[in-house]
Amino acid sequence: MLTHDAALEWIARWDRQQEGYLPDREERFTALIDAVEALGRPDPLVIDLGCGPGSLSARLLERLPQARVICVDADPLLLGLGRAAYPHLTFVSADLRTSGWTSLLGLERPADAAVSTTALHWISGPELKGVYSELASVLRPGGLLLNGDHMDTEDATPALSRLEHAVHERETARAFGANPPEDWRAWWEAIEADPSLSALNEERSTAGADHHGSESHLLSHHVEALEEAGFTEVGTLWQRGNNRLLCAVR
């Protein structure tokens, strides 16, 4: 059985391995939650896209305890960790690439914001357009999409793109030197070896939830898809190297 404490330990370990790729991850979380708070509602309705085990949503509720956060992911194991660790969050199993995913969310009114961090790059460009179009249908006018991820500009500004990568690489080297945290693959190998997670691991294997590659790593992929979906303004709200917080206004 997966206990509450064990789930929290696995998520803390998840956070550490994520920070190995994003030494300023907490700063990006803070900027994103600042933007949600700036909407002016103490009780915003927020959708977390590709939520993983709920790291972002948990932080959002710490700042805005009256918020309602609906966490969406297709990975059974990450959802299982989140449900065990954060019973006050609502977790929904859904594949964002499948039309109709918003009908599973149980929305009683249009959402004020949708948030995501280090998740939507797994979705291909054509599928991303469908995701953003469906999202636009459940966001209120003036609502926000806030997407934090590595987004490259090599197709438009290759020299700047190289500099952005260099800034990120130097920041990572300063933060960790020769002792980087556990990486993505090592974390998953440890998860797969834990007997208390055998049922969730089997469910994950059956669901085919593993990711391979980055399908929409360009900033232009997201900007074009958001504009096509009818978002009125799209721009970078926060940035460190090629690590961005992209904001789109419905």
UniProtKB/TrEMBL annotation:
PANTHER family reported for this sequence: TRANS-ACONITATE 2-METHYLTRANSFERASE, TRANS-ACONITATE 2-METHYLTRANSFERASE-RELATED
Record has Protein transport as a keyword: no
Family matches, as Pfam families: Methyltransf_25
UniProt name for this protein: Class I SAM-dependent methyltransferase
InterPro entries to which the protein is assigned, alphabetical: Methyltransf_25, SAM-dependent_MTases_sf
Gene3D superfamilies xref list: Vaccinia Virus protein VP39 (3.40.50.150)
Gene Ontology BP annotations: methylation
Alphabetized UniProt keyword annotations: Methyltransferase, Transferase
MF terms (GO), sorted A to Z: methyltransferase activity
Keyword field contains Transferase: yes
Record-annotated Methyltransferase domain positions: 46-143
Top-level taxon of origin: Bacteria
